[in-house]
Design goal:
mainly alpha, 2 domains
Amino acid sequence: MAMKAAPEDQALLLDLQTLDTRLQQLSHRAANLPELATIAGLVTVRDGLRATVAEANGAWEDAQLELKRTEADVAVVEARVARDTERIQSSASSKDVAAFEQELAALARRQSDLEDIELAVMETADERAKALRDARAQLEAVEARIAEASAARDAALLELDAERAAASAERAGIAARVPGELLALYEKQRARYGVGASLLRGGVSSASGVALNSADMTVVRAAAPDDVLLCPDSNAVLVRTNESGL
């Protein structure tokens, strides 16, 4: 036996469908906010910069260690120079003095070489410190942009949530006025086919955008106003109004 429902009750399904479409659109917008793509792109950049900062920090630390080793070598040579100079001053042996002077000459060359090395290492350390500062500055800038985009995303989601809440509340009010059996059919068809109700306007089903053929229109015209019909193309409840062209 065909389902029966008052035409005005069937018309409520169009309001439900409008709201369900609106809710779907809001969900789609929430899932595809431009801020989400912006954040995703910035996160990729941020991750790359974090790796760059870690690498730059490691290079700077290596330079610092090398600088400390070089400074320690210089300090050892300076200590030996001071020791040999003191020995020369206190030695009475010309042979010992000559040996000390020879060693001091070698130490002077060694000290000069070490100081050149120390200067080069200091320059390298400075360069690496600058590279580390630059990488950290870039990372901070990207993180600030992520925070800004995240705030914009949250504001947009808050607005969409408010719209969804209003649409859901309106939907609940309309659904409460639809007879249970008719509402169950609407929900079933919507779950299966994506659309639960379709307006027949001028012989065209709004859900499919397709004009009903002559045989289908004959069936529709022969149906009683309270007969519940399904669109032959979309399988949604076919709602007839004064616009249907019957």
